[in-house]
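Support request, please re-run this one:
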Amino acid sequence: MFFGKQRIYLDHASATPLDPIVAEAVSNAWKLVGNAGAIHHEGVLASRVLERSRERVAAQLGCKAREVIFTSGLTESNNLAILGFARNLSIRGTSLNGTHWVVSAIEHPSVLESFSDIERMGGTVSHVMPDARGIITAEAVRNTLKKETVFVSVGWANNEIGVVQPLSEISRAIKAHEVAHKTVVVFHTDAGQAPLYRASTVHSLGVDLFALGAHKLYGPEGVGALYIDDRVALAALLLGGAQERKLRAGTESVALSVGCAEVLERVAEVRAEETKRLKQLRDDFAATLVKALPDIVINGALDHALAHMLNISIPGIHSEYLTLALDHAGIAVSTKSTCREGEERSSHVVEALGGDPPAGGWRAQNTLRFSLGRHTTAVEMKRAAEILIGLVHSTRAIGAQ
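Re-run finished. Output below.
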């Protein structure tokens, strides 16, 4: 047990524990002493291990090894994909003025803040809203595209509500637009935790840029990857040496690249079994809460969500209070994306779903996110439900006095 016998960890969407098999692979790779850029024996050995890791990642993504570069994690992968594309346009002499960019309104901050930079540089950005289920439909994207559109970004599965987006359908809409307007539109996705429960072949998804972070997948912190389709040109954001196709200067971390490759293979091995198991735990947990607290709202359609995610809103009780009370009782949950914790009270994702009850707009402010993982048990979920239901009832009883 990673978190102690008394703790129940239900925040896997923020960070996952390191898989012991992955940890061992990384530990063994740390023993390599050579710089992968050196031409002596130790350097050549390190380079071989690095390139073998790249091949292993590419095999899981169904792409060529040369189309994969290693990064420091998901945030850098997203930044390089979006801002690296913009920087390449500028280097080639193309002003961002007059260019049109499309992004889902419910993205992670690493994506949304990148598009804020695009606007500061002169690009026009359109934000596509989800429907009430939390889905960014292909039709919604199609209706947003313009002749001047150069880039579209839609995350594969939302990091707050877990809803999986129809990337292949969106890709077909983009391709049809390209043919009709004789233009090129690059399609980027933040993969998040989706690879845990969905096969990650990039060509079946129809994306040009696919951002990964190992720490979302039971891998080590500090490493990620970015798939870059051959038709896409990016410019480096980190300047210096010629590492990683001249897109990421700095000495490569061979050991962490091994961890990234190892974790993707491990994910593929347990994906089907874990998806089935966690979906049952999540659905039973949701049913228990709805029965005991019929006024709660489930945010996002569960039949379209990743198997391990449940996001709810509870009227009349601040989610920060419940999060702290649950933590005191030994249960770790989040109110929203951890990157937004402490910044703002409401969830921009849940707010974008619309349908907030008219009693004061409480839904986006009172969210709780439960995200299960490999070590989550039925006993833990039963205990978590009992404690949460008890906290809600006792808090409401005190408020009624």
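The CA atoms of residues 78 and 211 lie 6 Å apart. The longest strand covers residues 100-104.
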